[in-house]
Design goal:
Radius of gyration: 32 Å
Largest sheet: 9 strands, mixed
Distance between the termini: 15 Å
Strand content: 5-15%
Structural class: alpha/beta
Number of strands: 11
Oligomer: single chain
Length: 751
C-alpha cells in the first residue's frame, strides 16, 4: 500500500476506533463505579482524535525570487490556472491555498484604523509642503484630505518616486490607497471584514492578489480548490518574491516560514541560482530552517536546446546550492508543462501550440516527466510521513491506554461481584491501597511539572531579556550600530528652487534611503536572528520536559507492575500496558491547540510608526532650515554646498536619534509580548498537555469502588444484571483492542 493510501487508511481507522470507544463509554456509564471517574476526560479524548486528525494542517511554503515560476508551480500542484501568473512584484500578500469541496476565495480586509496607521507612517517626512497632516492623523474617507494628498503625490519629482531603481515603498503604498479607495470604500469598516468569491465568481479574486491598488487593502487571502491532486489538510502558500523591493514582503515570508513544515524553493532555469537566491537561502540558514527545504528547478523548455543543455544547468545549480546546503536534492521539471496537461486546465490557442511543440521535443519532455514523477513521490513522502507518524502514534497511545484501561476496570468489577463479601473486601482494600499510591505518584508528577514550568518560564524570560539587551546583545546592538553608521549619500541633488522646498525634498530623499536601509537590515539580519532564537527556545522547552518526564515514566510503570502483582494474587487479569515512553507534545500541535503565535516578523517593521513626524518637523527640520538659511545668506557660492550638507547632516542626526528611540521602544514591547504572550503561554500549554498525558495513564486504571460495594449488598440479582452489561461492553472493547494492535503494525512503516 502506498504511503498516501496507508495514511488515509490509518486516519479513517483511528476515527472509527474513537467512535467505537465512545459507544462503549456510553454503554459503560451505568456500570457502578465506572462512570464516576474519568468519563469526561475519555469522552474528550474521543472527540479530540477526530477533530485533531481532521484539522491538523501541513503547511508548505513555496518561495523563491521574483519571476521564478512560483505561481505556475502552485497552479500545477492543484491542476488548474487558479492563481494569477506573472503577478506584479509589489503585491504584498501571501496567498494560502487548501483543498476543499468547492472553489472559494476568502479575502480579509484591513480595518480603517489599520489603513490609517499605515498611511500616517508612510507620510513621515513627506517632502511636499502642500501636504500638511491633520492633527488627529490622516483619514482616507475625508475627500479634502484625499485630494490634497493626491495633489502632493502627483507633484513629486521622479527621484522621489524611485529608490535604488525600484518604486519607493511609502509612495507606492499611498498611491495604492488613493487609487483603490473608490472601488473598495463600500466594503471597508472599522471592524474586520471578510468577503468571499465562490464557484463561478472565483476568478474575481485575482485582481486583489495581482493589482497593487487592491492588494494594499488586504490583510489575508485564502483559497479553497476542489482538487484531488493535493492531500487533504495541506496548506500551500504562494509567497511573494524574496527579492521584492519592499522589505516588508520579506518579513511576511519569514512569518509564514516559521509555521511551515516544508519549504519548496523554486529556481528558474532561465537564470539559474541568482544573487537574490543566495541571499535568501542564507537568511533561511540563519533562521535554522534549511532542513525542510526541497529545491525545484522550474524548466522553461523554450530556453534549452537539448536535454544535455538542461542537465548541465541542473548540475550548475546543484554546485551553486552546495555552497549553502550540503548535498542538495534538486528536482527539475516544467511546471508549465504539468499545468498545460492538467485535465481541469482550459488552454488557450497559444497554450495548445506550445504544448504540441513541447510534446514533440522528446528528450526534453522525457527529462521533465522523469523529474516531475520523482518530485511528486518525494513531495508526498516528505509532506506527510514524519508529521503524520507523530500524530498517529500520539493518538494511538491515547486510544490504546483508554481501551485497555476501560477493559481493566470492567474486569475488576466483574471479579468483585462474583466473590463473597469477605473475599471482596480484602480485594477492594488491596486495590485501594495501590490506587492511593498511584494518586501519590500522580500528585508528585503534577507538582514537579508545575515547578518545572515556573523554573523554565523564569529561565526563558532571562534569556529573552539578554537577547534584546542592546548593551550586550549583538542582534539589537548591531541594529543600533547600523543606524548610527548610516552616512549621507555621496551624491545629493543640486537643490535648485525655493530653499525650503529643496530642503524638504533632500531630507525626504535621505529619509527614504535611510528607512529602506534600516528596513532591509531588519528583514535580512534582525528578524532571522529572532526567529532562530525562538526556535531554539522552543527546542529548550521540549528538551526540559523530556528530561523531567523520563524518570516519572519509569516510576509509572513500576507502580503498575506492583499493582499487577497484587491483581495476580486474586486471580484477576493484569493491567495490559505497553512500555513506551511518553511522547513529548509537538511544538506545532501545542501552539495550535493553545491558540498562541509568535509576534509577527512584519510587526518589527512597524517601528517607523513611532517616529513623531510632527515633532520632527517642528523641532528638527524647521530649526535646521533656519540654520540653513542663515548659512546661505552669509556664505559665498563656493561654501553653500558644504553648508547645505552640514544642515542635512544635522537633520539626519536628528532622524537617527528618533529612529533609535523608536526601535528601542518597539523592541521593548516586542520583548514583553514574546515573554508573556508567547513563550510563557507555550510552556503552560505544554505543561498541561504533558500532565494530561501522564495522568491519563493512571486514571485509565483507577476508579471509585464504592458503588461496587453497595451493589454487592443488594443481592445476586443485581450482580447478574451487572455482569451481563459488563460482558456486552467487554465484547466491544476486545474488538477495539484487536484493531488497535493491528493498526500499530500498519503505522510502523510511517515511522
Amino acid at each position: 500500500m502506498k504511503d498516501k493510501d496507508l495514511q488515509k487508511h490509518v486516519k479513517e481507522a483511528l476515527v472509527d476506533i474513537s467512535h467505537d470507544l465512545a459507544a462503549a463509554l456510553s454503554k459503560a456509564q451505568n456500570i457502578p463505579g465506572f462512570g464516576n471517574s474519568g468519563m469526561g476526560e475519555w469522552t474528550r479524548i474521543c472527540e479530540d482524535v477526530e477533530n485533531q486528525i481532521g484539522d491538523a494542517a501541513i503547511r508548505v511554503a513555496v518561495v523563491g525570487a521574483i519571476k521564478s515560476g512560483k505561481s505556475t508551480f502552485v497552479n500545477a500542484l492543484f491542476g488548474g490556472d487558479y492563481l494569477k501568473r506573472g503577478a506584479g512584484v509589489m503585491t504584498a500578500i501571501v496567498t494560502r491555498i487548501r483543498p476543499g469541496s468547492r472553489l472559494r476565495a476568502t479575502l480579509m480586509f484591513k480595518t480603517w484604523s489599520e489603513i490609517h496607521r499605515e498611511i500616517d507612517a508612510a507620510l513621515a517626512l513627506f517632502p511636499n509642503e502642500i501636504w500638511q497632516s491633520a492633527a488627529e492623523g490622516f483619514d482616507l474617507r475625508d475627500g479634502a484630505q484625499r485630494t490634497a494628498l493626491a495633489s502632493a503625490v502627483s507633484g513629486l519629482a521622479p527621484d522621489q518616486l524611485i529608490t535604488e531603481e525600484a518604486h519607493n515603498p511609502q509612495i507606492a503604498l499611498l498611491t495604492g490607497y488613493l487609487k483603490g479607495y473608490d472601488e473598495l470604500k463600500a466594503i471597508l469598516s472599522e471592524e474586520p471584514v471578510t468577503h468571499r468569491f465562490e464557484e463561478d465568481d472565483f476568478p474575481e479574486h485575482r485582481p486583489f492578489a495581482a493589482s497593487d491598488h487592491l492588494a494594499v487593502f488586504l490583510k489575508d487571502i485564502r483559497l479553497e480548490i476542489d482538487t484531488g491532486t493535493v492531500p487533504a489538510n495541506t496548506e500551500v502558500a504562494d509567497c511573494q518574491g524574496s527579492d521584492s523591493p519592499n522589505p516588508l514582503h520579506l518579513a511576511m515570508i519569514e512569518d509564514y516560514l516559521l509555521t511551515a513544515h516544508l519549504i519548496v524553493y523554486v529556481i528558474s532555469s532561465r537564470t539559474g541560482v541568482r544573487q537574490a537566491d543566495i541571499k535568501f537561502l542564507n537568511i533561511i540558514r540563519r533562521m535554522g530552517m534549511l532542513d525542510p527545504v526541497i529545491f525545484v528547478v522550474n524548466a522553461d523548455l523554450n530556453e534549452h536546446e537539448s536535454a544535455e543543455d538542461l542537465t548541465a544547468l541542473i548540475d550548475k545549480v546543484r554546485e551553486d546550492l552546495g555552497l549553502i546546503v550540503p548535498d542538495p536534492a534538486v528536482h527539475r521539471f516544467s511546471a508549465l508543462l504539468e499545468l498545460l496537461r492538467a485535465p481541469t486546465h482550459a488552454p488557450t490557442e497559444k497554450d495548445r501550440v506550445r504544448l504540441e511543440a513541447w510534446e514533440a521535443e522528446t528528450s526534453l519532455r522525457e527529462l521533465s516527466d522523469e523529474g516531475a514523477a520523482l518530485f511528486k513521490h518525494v513531495f508526498e513522502e516528505k509532506l506527510t510521513r514524519e508529521r503524520n507518524s507523530l500524530l498517529f502514534r500520539s493518538h494511538m497511545e491515547r486510544l490504546g491506554v483508554m481501551a485497555y484501561g476501560m477493559a481493566h476496570r470492567i474486569n475488576v468489577r466483574k471479579e468483585l461481584i462474583s466473590r463473597d463479601a469477605r473475599g471482596a473486601d480484602e480485594m477492594i482494600d488491596r486495590i485501594r491501597a495501590h490506587q492511593e499510591k498511584m494518586e501519590g505518584v500522580r500528585d508528585m508528577i503534577r507538582s514537579t511539572l508545575e515547578g518545572t514550568s515556573r523554573t523554565l518560564k523564569d529561565s526563558l524570560k532571562s534569556e529573552v531579556e539578554r537577547f534584546f539587551d542592546a548593551r550586550y546583545a549583538e542582534t539589537i546592538g548591531g541594529l543600533l550600530r547600523f543606524i548610527d553608521g548610516f552616512a549621507l549619500p555621496a551624491g545629493l541633488p543640486d537643490g535648485d528652487g525655493p530653499e525650503k522646498t529643496a530642503f524638504h525634498t533632500d531630507m525626504y530623499q535621505i529619509y527614504s534611503e535611510f528607512k529602506r536601509a534600516v528596513d532591509r537590515y531588519m528583514a535580512e539580519t534582525v528578524n532571522p536572528e529572532i526567529i532562530r532564537f525562538v526556535r531554539d527556545a522552543e527546542q529548550r522547552i521540549r528538551n526540559r520536559f523530556e528530561s523531567v518526564t523520563g524518570p516519572y515514566d519509569v516510576m509509572l510503570y513500576d507502580v503498575l507492575d506492583e499493582y499487577n502483582r497484587t491483581l495476580e494474587r486474586f486471580g484477576i487479569p493484569p493491567v495490559r500496558h505497553r512500555r513506551e515512553p511518553i511522547l513529548i507534545p509537538d511544538v506545532d500541535a501545542v501552539r495550535e491547540e493553545a491558540g498562541v503565535s509568535l509576534p509577527a516578523a512584519e510587526v518589527s517593521m512597524r517601528y517607523s510608526a513611532r517616529i513623531k513626524t510632527d515633532a520632527m518637523m517642528r523641532l528638527g527640520i524647521f530649526s535646521f532650515l533656519r540654520i540653513f538659511k542663515k548659512l546661505i545668506k552669509r556664505s559665498p557660492d563656493a561654501d553653500r554646498a558644504e553648508n547645505r550638507r552640514r544642515a542635512l547632516a544635522a537633520g539626519l542626526s536628528r532622524l537617527k536619534a528618533e529612529t533609535r528611540e523608536s526601535v528601542v521602544s518597539h523592541f521593548k514591547d516586542y520583548r514583553e509580548n514574546l515573554k508573556y504572550q508567547y513563550l510563557s503561554k507555550l510552556v503552560d500549554a505544554a505543561t498541561g498537555q504533558l500532565n494530561a498525558a501522564l495522568i491519563h495513564r493512571f486514571s485509565a486504571y483507577a476508579g471509585d469502588l464504592s458503588e461496587i460495594v453497595r451493589l454487592m449488598g443488594e443481592g445476586q440479582g443485581g450482580s447478574v444484571r451487572l455482569s451481563d452489561r459488563i460482558d456486552d461492553v467487554n465484547a466491544t472493547l476486545k474488538g477495539v483492542q484487536t484493531r488497535i494492535d493491528q493498526l500499530r503494525e500498519r503505522i510502523a512503516p510511517l515511522a
